[in-house]
Design brief:
Shape: elongated
Number of domains: 2
Number of helices: 3
CATH topology of the largest domain: OB fold (Dihydrolipoamide Acetyltransferase, E2P)
Strand order of the largest sheet: 7-6-5-8-9
CATH architecture of the largest domain: Beta Barrel
Largest sheet: 5 strands, antiparallel
Number of strands: 9
Order of helices and strands: EHEHEEEEEHEE
Distance between the termini: 48 Å
CATH superfamily of the largest domain: Nucleic acid-binding proteins
Amino acid sequence: MVLFDLLAAPDGESLLQTPLIQRRSALDAFFQSIRREYPVRLSPYTRNNIVEARGCLDASCGALDEDVYRPGERGMLKVKKRRTADCVVGGFRYAANTHFVGSLLLGLYNNEGKLDHVGFTATLRELDREALTRQLEEGMIMPPGFTGNAPGGPSRWSIERSAEWQLLRPEWWSRSVTITSAADGSATAPVFCAGDRTKR
């Protein structure tokens, strides 16, 4: 269990209208009083933005010192690290019940020079899906596609997405892909920002 805020004092007094900086001091004191008795941890915090940006593992939350707690409202700002990678587009899937591209399948070359599937991106809302589909279908649907680890079954986020995919010549790469790494090292939520043709 990780403690990150204190909404009531040990004597039952409500701290909802108490500024965050004072709630944090009360939380620190409360944690010190129970740390030897209970297996709890105290979330780290800093008022140094640079230290915060460098030290967070995945994401951090920011709030003003004088903020009171507002039940039911998202009062804190969540900031995630931006991780990028240049991935090769090795295939695509059609969107459910359409003939348009639904997602691009992304890959990275391994040490053996084979293209491994590492994730997908379905964030194509700002692109012309019809034009993109036509461009991909006209001459790019052909081997080799993924020559290493290939895509598996349907997405775990969308059971309606087709498990069938079309392989592509590895001539496209996705530029500035934001990646959230899963435990197995795969890309779980990449965002396709732009694409261009490239030669490996």
